[in-house]
Design brief:
CATH architecture: Up-down Bundle
CATH topology: Growth Hormone, Chain: A
Number of domains: 1
Order of helices and strands: HHHHHHHHHHHHHEEHHHHH
CATH class: Mainly Alpha
Low-confidence stretches: 1-8, 220-234, 462-469, 471-493
CATH superfamily: MFS general substrate transporter like domains
Radius of gyration: 23 Å
Structural class: mainly alpha
Helix content: over 70%
Largest sheet: 2 strands, antiparallel
Number of helices: 18
Strand order of the largest sheet: 1-2
Oligomer: single chain
Mean pLDDT: 80
Strand content: under 5%
Length: 493
C-alpha cells in the first residue's frame, strides 16, 4: 500500500466516522424531541400548533442569516461546540412541556422559538458538515486523475441515506417510548412529568455524542493533506445575505416548491394525521404507536430508495416521481376514506380526548391509520433525504454552506406554513389536504423543468454534456456553438 493509498483510506475513515457519530447524536437528540413534537397537537391542542408554528418561523428567520455565524464558529470553536450548543436548545423545549400552569401559554411558545433558532444552527451545520465529508471522501475514493463528480455524488447519497435512516429510526424509538409511558401511566397525574423527563434524558445523551465528533476542515481550502487530490474549493466566507442570494441560482430556485412541500408533508403527518385520524379514531394514547409505525416504514424506504439509487437501478428523477405519487395517494385516501370519530375533546380538560358513548374503534379505523402511515413513509423515504443529497451534488464546488442554509430555511417554512394551516383551518381537513396536493403538482412542474437542463444524477449530466459537446464539435465553421464544460455551473447566476 502506497503512502497516497494510506492517506486516502484515512480520509474516508475519518469522514465516515464523523457521519456515523453525527447520525447517532441526532438519534439521541431526536429520540427525545421527536416524541415531544409528535404529541404537540394531540396533548396541547391549539397551543401545540402555535408552538410548532413559532418553532419553524424562527427556524426560517435564523436559518437565512446564520451562514456567516456558522462559518466563523466552525473555524474558531469547532464543530463540536456548535452541535452541542444548538442541541441543548432541544432539551429546553422538551422541558417546557412540564409547565402545566397558565404560564405555559407563553413559556412553551418562547421555548419553541429558542429551539427554532437552535435548530437552524444544528441542521445547517449538519448539512454543511456532511457536504464537506462527501467532498473529502469522494475525492479520496475517486481514482487519481479522474473526475470526482460521480464519486462525490455517490457519497452524498450514501451519507444522507444512512443519516436519515438512523434519524427516522430515532423518531420510531421516540414514539415507541412515548406510547409505552402513556400506556403504563394512563390516568395518573405524573404521566406528563415521567414522559418528558425520559425524553429529556434521551436528548441529553444525544448532545453528549457530539463531544466525540472528529474534526474535519470547515472549508475545502483548508483540506490540505487530508486528500492528495484536488478537493473542491469553497467561495469566500458567506455573508448574512448569502442564503437569500443563493436562491437566484436556477438549480436551487426550481427546487424551492419541492423543498417547501417536503416541509408541509412532514408537518402534515406530525400534526394533521395525528389530530385528524389517530386521536379521534383510535385514541390519544396510541399516537406514539402509529407515529412509530410511520417512522419505521420511513426508515425502511429511506434505506431502500438509497440503495436503488446507489446501485443505479433507479435514478433520482424516477424515485422523485414515484414517491410523489405516494404522497398523492396518501392525501387522496385521507380525503375520500372518511370515518366517524370514536373520541371527542373533553370540555373539562384541555387537550384531553374521551370516548364517545356508543362508539368503539373498529378494524376499518385501524386499517385507515395503517394505510396512511405506510403511504406517508414511502413518500417521505426520498422526499426528506433527496433534496439535501441533490443540493450537495449541485453545489459541491461552491456556496455549499449558503445553499444548505437556504434549504433548511425553506423546508422549515413549509413546516411553519402547515402548522399554521393546522391551527387556523383545523375544521377544514379537505382544504388543508387540497393545498398540499396543489403544492405537489407545482413541485412536479418545477422539478421536471429542472431535470431538462440540470439532470439530478451525475451520469446523466455527463451524458448531456457529452451530447452537447459532440453537437458543438460538429457545428459548421463560423458557428456560434461552444463546447460545454462538464463541470457544474457557477453557483450564482
Amino acid at each position: 500500500m502506497t503512502q497516497g493509498d494510506r492517506e486516502l483510506s484515512e480520509t474516508e475513515k475519518t469522514c465516515a466516522r464523523g457521519v456515523t457519530i453525527t447520525s447517532w447524536g441526532f438519534f439521541g437528540l431526536f429520540a427525545g424531541f421527536g416524541g415531544a413534537q409528535s404529541l404537540q397537537s394531540s396533548v396541547n391542542g391549539t397551543l401545540g400548533f402555535i408552538n410548532l408554528a413559532c418553532l419553524y418561523t424562527f427556524f426560517v428567520i435564523v436559518g437565512l442569516i446564520c451562514p456567516p455565524m456558522i462559518d466563523a464558529a466552525a473555524g474558531r470553536v469547532g464543530w463540536r461546540a456548535i452541535f452541542f450548543s444548538a442541541g441543548f436548545t432541544y432539551i429546553i423545549m422538551i422541558g417546557s412541556n412540564l409547565d402545566s400552569m397558565p404560564s405555559k401559554n407563553w413559556v412553551q411558545p418562547l421555548a419553541n422559538a429558542i429551539v427554532g433558532a437552535g435548530a437552524a444552527f444544528l441542521w445547517t451545520t449538519q448539512n454543511f458538515y456532511f457536504g464537506q465529508c462527501a467532498n473529502l471522501a469522494g475525492a479520496a475514493a475517486a481514482p487519481l486523475g479522474t473526475s470526482v463528480t460521480d464519486s462525490v455524488a455517490g457519497m452524498t447519497t450514501k451519507f444522507n441515506s444512512s443519516f436519515f435512516a438512523v434519524f427516522q429510526f430515532s423518531n420510531t424509538a421516540s414514539n415507541l417510548v412515548a406510547f409505552g409511558v402513556l400506556l403504563a401511566f394512563k390516568g395518573q397525574a405524573i404521566v406528563t412529568t415521567v414522559l418528558f423527563a425520559v425524553l429529556s434524558t434521551f436528548a441529553l445523551l444525544g448532545c453528549l455524542m457530539f463531544c466525540i465528533l472528529p474534526s474535519i476542515p470547515h472549508t475545502a481550502v483548508d483540506a490540505g493533506p487530508m486528500s492528495p487530490q484536488t478537493v473542491r474549493r469553497q467561495d469566500k466566507s458567506p455573508t448574512v445575505s448569502s442564503a437569500f442570494m443563493q436562491m437566484a441560482d436556477v438549480r436551487l430556485g426550481l427546487m424551492v416548491p419541492w423543498i417547501i412541500t417536503n416541509g408541509m408533508t412532514f408537518a402534515f403527518v406530525n400534526g394533521d394525521y395525528t389530530a385528524d385520524i389517530v386521536t379521534p379514531l383510535i385514541g390519544e394514547e396510541y399516537v406514539g404507536l402509529f407515529m412509530t409505525g410511520f417512522f419505521a416504514v420511513d426508515t425502511c424506504f429511506t434505506m431502500g430508495w438509497g440503495q436503488l439509487i446507489a446501485k443505479k437501478a433507479l435514478g433520482r428523477r424516477s424515485v422523485f416521481i414515484v414517491t410523489g405519487m405516494c404522497w398523492v395517494a396518501f392525501l387522496v385516501t385521507k380525503m375520500l376514506w372518511t370515518r366517524e370519530p370514536n373520541f371527542e375533546k373533553s370540555d373539562d380538560v384541555v387537550g384531553k380526548w374521551i370516548p364517545i358513548p356508543g362508539r368503539k374503534t373498529g378494524t376499518t379505523d385501524i386499517a385507515l391509520a395503517v394505510t396512511l402511515a405506510v403511504l406517508a413513509g414511502a413518500g417521505d423515504g426520498f422526499w426528506t433525504p433527496g433534496p439535501p443529497a441533490i443540493l450537495q451534488s449541485f453545489f459541491a464546488e461552491s456556496n455549499l454552506l449558503a445553499t444548505m442554509a437556504a434549504y433548511k430555511a425553506l423546508q422549515s417554512l413549509g413546516f411553519a406554513i402547515q402548522f399554521a394551516l393546522g391551527a387556523t383551518l383545523h375544521a377544514y381537513p379537505i382544504l388543508r389536504a387540497s393545498i398540499i396536493l396543489g403544492m405537489i403538482a407545482l413541485s412536479y412542474i418545477t422539478m421536471l423543468t429542472l431535470v431538462c437542463k440540470h439532470p439530478l444524477d451525475p451520469r446523466a449530466r455527463d451524458q448531456l454534456s457529452e451530447s452537447l459537446n459532440n453537437s458543438a464539435a460538429s457545428a459548421p465553421p463560423g458557428g456560434t456553438s461552444l463546447p460545454i464544460n462538464p463541470a457544474p455551473e457557477p453557483a450564482a447566476r
